[in-house]
Design goal:
The chain is an alpha/beta fold and about 325 residues long. It has two domains: about 160 residues, Bordetella uptake gene, domain 1 (D-Maltodextrin-Binding Protein, domain 2, 3-Layer(aba) Sandwich); about 110 residues, 3-Layer(aba) Sandwich (D-Maltodextrin-Binding Protein, domain 2), CATH 3.40.190.10. Strand 6, helix 6 and strand 7 form a beta-alpha-beta unit. Helix 2 crosses helix 9.
């Protein structure tokens, strides 16, 4: 076997050329795929069940994305484990732009601390596509409750027996908003978790539980029907959906700014050209007056973000909610 320096050098040269050639072909192939994208329907995974806010918002977005993309965007509900199942599915899907997910404050911020062993990394395993919007939760009590303001709630919490607050479950945004309010007001506040937000709201309306934080799309019809009263909004500013309801912060209870939000993500590693195509389509969709109105009906407030801003926002949200999760003591194995 000839192993002279010249022969070895020749073999290495041919190997290097082959590797470089293969790399160029691969890049070329990726460029062609990205240029032609999309050539088939796109799947939008909703990590929660049908009829939820996330589902409704996702279906509005799916319909709006289809036109600029020139392909159908099919919504697929993959509910379970607080959004973990559906989110993990997308995190482990091929990074080709044909499987995306509607991430939420729960799946991509709260769960990072709530779950001891989260199977995906909210930052490393996803590439942000578009910020769909945010909504504050509303602090509501029964319409016939003697509590008329947040100050009244603070006074009642300081009395023997305190007050109780409901939520859609341990570790949900409503639960954690209640924990932050407890820290701001002091006194005795007992958390009562439910399996579903609608059940919790029913008991608040019946006076079985004193208050809860819930999204505007669910509580505003009950407020108009005379069954609930809103004492405050959880955002730093008043909600556009309920401009007559003062924020908790403006009522003098410190830095209180917690909102639910929704963001489209693709798997990490999705080609830049494909992401650009998705982001452009989302930008066109969000510019539609019809889309703005339909999302507004869900209490959603729109906010334009660049990719780097979405990444920074996600990192900040994980840190913010991490403190609340730890304070609440909520933990899922």
């Amino acid at each position: 076997m000839n192993t002279s320096p010249l022969v070895i050098r020749g073999r290495l040269t041919r190997l290097t050329a082959w590797v470089l050639g293969a790399g160029i072909l691969a890049l070329g192939s990726t460029a062609v795929v990205a240029q032609d994208y999309p050539t088939r329907p796109i799947k939008l995974v909703v990590p929660f069940g049908p009829g939820t806010s996330t589902d409704i918002i996702s279906r509005v977005m799916a319909e709006a994305l289809a036109k600029p993309l020139g392909q159908s965007v099919i919504v697929e509900n993959r509910a379970g484990a607080g959004g973990v199942i559906g989110s993990d599915l997308v995190a482990k899907s091929p990074a080709d732009g044909y499987t995306i997910v509607m991430g939420t404050v729960g799946t991509h911020a709260i769960n990072a601390t709530l779950y001891k062993k989260l199977p995906y990394d909210p930052l490393k395993d996803f590439a942000p596509v578009a910020f769909a919007g945010y909504t504050p939760t509303m602090l509501v009590v029964a319409a016939n409750s003697p509590l008329k303001t947040v100050k009244d709630l603070a006074v009642q919490a300081g009395k023997p027996g305190g007050v109780s607050f409901a939520s859609a479950g341990n570790g949900t945004s409503g639960h954690l908003a209640g924990e932050l309010l407890k820290a701001r007001l002091g006194g005795d506040m007992v958390h009562v978790p439910y399996k579903e937000g609608g059940l919790a709201m029913s008991d608040v309306m019946a006076g079985q539980v004193q208050f809860m934080f819930y999204h505007p799309a669910a509580v505003l019809p009950q407020i108009k029907a005379g069954k609930l009263r809103a004492l405050g909004a959880s955002s730093a500013k008043r909600s556009a959906a309920a401009p007559d309801v003062p924020s908790i912060a403006e009522q003098g209870y410190g830095d209180f700014d917690l909102v639910a939000w929704f963001m489209l993500y693709a798997p990490s590693g999705t080609p830049a050209a494909v992401l650009a195509r998705l982001r452009d389509a989302a930008s066109q969709a969000m510019a539609s007056a019809d889309v703005v109105a339909r999302l507004g009906a869900q209490g959603l407030e729109l906010r334009s973000m660049k990719p780097e801003e979405m990444t920074a926002f996600g990192r900040t949200e994980i840190s913010k909610w991490s403190d609340l999760v730890k304070r609440s003591g909520a933990q899922v194995d």
